[in-house]
Amino acid sequence: MKARVASSIALALAVAFGTAGCGFIAPQATTKHYDASDGVSGNVGQIDVRNAIIITDAKNGSVGNLVVTLVNNDSKSHSVAIQAGNEASATTRVTVQPGQVKVLGRDPRAETGNVFISNFDALPGSLFNVYFQYGSETGVKLQVPVLDGQLPEYNSLVPPEILPANG
Q: What is the rounded CA–CA span in Å between residue 46 and residue 137?
């Protein structure tokens, strides 16, 4: 009788492990990070850079509008330096308060909350280097996709011809 119980338990364990065997050794795709939108993401210390894209006018794209979300996971504010391209003169500083989720570029006609890239010559469909850094933290360089306003969800994000002040 004991042999029958033991063999039943062994058979049940063999079936359980045999049918779930792939889950024990195969990598799980749900644990891999990916950007589920058109933008790209990265991290600088306690600041999360999320869904960064640049919107420009396909016809005369001399200005780029950086649309990005900055998330401060720290208990103190940080002044994030955003450098577009390879020119240090194209650096903008944005202060992100503790726990704040700050969205930039959502209203390109507003006087603050925008990071415009002047003398912008990247074409829609290309990638443009943008560097994010604050304090003594090691920065992150992202290759940000350049898009135009042809899709309805990006039409309102095309920068105006007359630029308001950066903010």
A: 9
